[in-house]
Amino acid sequence: MEALEQLLAEHPFLQGLPSRHLSRLVDFAEAKQFDAQQFLFREGEAAREFFLIRSGQVAMEIYTARRGAITIQTRQAGDVLGWMGLKPPYQWNVDARAMTVVRVITLKVEGLWRLCEEDHELGYDLLKRHIGCMAQYFKSMKLQLVSLVHGV
Question: E strand or H helix at 121, and its extent?
Fold first, then answer.
C-alpha cells in the first residue's frame, strides 16, 4: 500500500496534500494501465472512477454520425480525467481513448464522496483542486474547438 500512497503523493493533483489524507485515499485507489487505442470509458457508461494520469496521452472524443469520432481535448501525464460526481446520475458524457500506453491511478467516486462527507477538510481541499482543473480544461477545450471548427 505504501507504493500506491507514494504514487498518489507524486501526482500533481494531490501534491502537498497532507499524508493523513493521502493514506485515506489509498483505500479507494488502484493503479491501472491502458494500451494504445483502448477506451478508458465510453459515453453513457456509469462514471464510477476518477482518473489521475501518470503517463501517456488520452483523447477526449465525441462521436457524430457525419464525422465519426472527433477529439475535443487531450489529456496527459499530470492531468485528471473525469468529474468527481457533482450530481447524479454519474455518467460519462464523452469517450476517453488512450492514444499511447496510459498509466493511471483510479479513485472510486463513491468512496471519494463518502470520504468527503466524513472529512470536510479533505473534501473542501479536493473540490478546490478539482474546480481549478476544470477551469483550466474548459479554457483549453474552447481553444481546441475553435481550432477544430475553423481548421486552424
Answer: helix 120-150
